[in-house]
Amino acid sequence: MSAASSRFILICSGKGGVGKTTLTANLGIALARQGARTAVLDADFGLRNLDLLLGLENRIVYTAQEVLAGSCRLEQALVKHKQEPNLALLPAGNPRMLEWLTPEDMERIAALLGEAHDYVLIDAPAGIEGGFRNAMAAAREAIIVTTPEVSAVRDADRVIGLLNSENVKPIQLVLNRVRPRMMANQDMLSVDDVTDILALPLLGLVLEDEQVIVSTNRGEPLTLNSSQSPAARAYTNVARRLLGEEVPLIDPSKERQGLRARIGRLMNTKIF
Ligand SMILES: Nc1ncnc2c1ncn2[C@@H]1O[C@H](COP(=O)(O)OP(=O)(O)O)[C@@H](O)[C@H]1O
Ligand SMILES: [Mg+2]
Q: Does residue 265 have a pLDDT over 90?
């Protein structure tokens, strides 16, 4: 596979803490499990934590920094996932890299990663400053992650403007931490509200799911162990859609948790 046919996807949001790194880790594993050679690049040099989410923090020897300085080869810095060898992480270097890193450096790293990988996922930092612009330079397309909160959607909108101005496309949307009950009660923006405001195609809907937090703390992405939790299924479906499969989106109004909703569903299916 040459870099020409590899996909370089920026995972970004504007606002911090909306689930970019979680998506990058889970999507990376899910793509790799489907047979795609996948590299994840931690471009959040200030707050690197993709290594932690993947459980790879103890296996880092070199980072993007040494690769750029020419003091090691890319293969030496890449950390292969033991359980999922199709996935490799290129760790972020020291936060002081931010002082000298340029968009051209990031382009160079991405081109190197593209030589041996079908997918290069770039975990962007929050914000729209230099760190984000560097990360954007490594990408050709983007996935915007947002939660259904007004502030997150507004920040996403700013990021979309920047991506458009740099001709990064397509841009697709993953709506994260969806709470069906709050949406139904109109205590949260609806899926349609968010897609209307941002005018982006929806690539995935991820429910609020406490298993995400458990897996984050363990350093084992949910998609690693065929977990059937709602978020695990959502991340796997995002991977399948990226790979070109048509997978229907869930309907949050049918995902209301709790006894009443479950009984309601059973009644709909005429079991009662
Ligand atoms: N769908 C979800 N359900 C529950 N918690 C989530 C979900 N997605 C992300 N989180 C939690 O939100 C926090 C921030 O996620 P993270 O991926 O680090 O965000 P970012 O990279 O955008 O800053 C983490 O504690 C993570 O476990
Ligand atoms: Mg992050």
A: no
Which atom of ligand 1 has the smallest separation from the CA of 207? 1
Task: Read off the pTM.
Answer: 0.93
Q: Residue 193: phi, psi to the nearest 5? A: -55, -50
Could you tell me if the CB of 42 is within 6 A of ligand 1?
no
Task: Pick the residue whose CA is nearest to atom 25 on ligand 1.
Answer: 213
Domain 3-268, CATH among 3.40.50.720, 3.40.50.2000, 3.40.50.300, 3.40.50.1980: 3.40.50.300
Residue 155's pLDDT is what?
A: 97
pLDDT of residue 2 exceeding 90, the answer is: no
Whether 17 is in the pocket of ligand 1, judged by its Cβ within 6 Å, is: yes
CA gap 115, 6 in Å, rounded: 8
Residue 143 backbone phi and psi in degrees, to 5: -120, 120
